[in-house]
Structures are given as C-alpha cells and as structure tokens.
Amino acid sequence: MNSAALYIHIPFCIRKCNYCDFTSFKYNEENVEEYIALLLKEIDMYSEKVKDYKFRTIFFGGGN
Predict the structure, then answer these.
(1) Which residue, 33, 39, 44, is CA-closest to 60?
(2) Cβ atoms of residues 62 and 10 within 8 Å
(3) What is the number of structural domains in the chain?
(4) Using CA atoms, how far apart are residues 33 and 21, in angstroms rounded to an integer?
(5) Most exposed residue of 4, 13, 31, 49, measured as fewest CB within 10 angstroms of its CB?
(6) What is the pLDDT of residues 3-24, one digit of tens each?
(7) Whether the predicted model's global pTM rises above the 0.85 cut
(8) Which range marks the domain in which residue 40 is found?
C-alpha cells in the first residue's frame, strides 16, 4: 500500500501571514459554507483514485 500525507488549506483569514503563499480571502460565513461543501465534493471525487493509499497524516492549515 502506498503512503501519503495530505494538506488541506482553509483560505479564510483575519489577516494574511507574511510567510503565506497560499490564496486567502477575508472571512465570510456564506463563502465558508460553500467552500466546505465543495471541499467535501472534491474529496469524494478523488476517493476512488486514492483508495490504495494510506494517509500518514492529514494537516489542516490556514484560517488565521
């Protein structure tokens, strides 16, 4: 079985960190709900492709 790690960036921030190269947006509850719904859809879309992988870690970042 293949192993992998996964990083999921949450792009809604109060302020942009000076070291961050990721896309970020000002927090908006409606956009967050839409983002989470689309993120879950994307996870579902990729689930078949990664079924032979064991994820060593799943890291959530962003959202400062």
Answers:
(1) 39
(2) yes
(3) 1
(4) 23
(5) 49
(6) 999 999 889 888 888 888 888 8
(7) no
(8) 2-62
